[in-house]
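Sequence, please.
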């Protein structure tokens, strides 16, 4: 029963979001359960690696491409802002 709880806490352990007492208890339980220990180590290494990477760049162009893909797939995406794309210019109307 307790091992199920420990397995549910592995993601919090990997992100170092557990209180120190609970983290110590989880590490003690991992000493008797090799599968739990392996999962904890792999998850912590993965999370540390993700935190060390540069964040992805999300530019206005990326936003417009994503929005266009949603529209072509008939998704009802309504942006919360009405800012014009930077690559589209308004021309004055004559007549």
């Amino acid at each position: 029963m307790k091992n199920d709880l420990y397995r549910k806490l592995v993601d919090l352990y990997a992100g170092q979001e557990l209180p120190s007492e609970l983290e110590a208890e989880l590490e003690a339980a991992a000493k008797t359960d090799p599968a739990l220990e392996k999962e904890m180590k792999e998850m912590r290494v993965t999370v540390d690696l993700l935190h060390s990477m540069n964040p992805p760049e999300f530019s206005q162009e990326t936003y417009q491409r994503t929005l266009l893909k949603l529209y072509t797939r008939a998704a009802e995406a309504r942006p919360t802002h009405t800012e014009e794309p930077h690559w589209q210019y308004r021309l004055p109307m004559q007549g």
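The mean pLDDT is 84.
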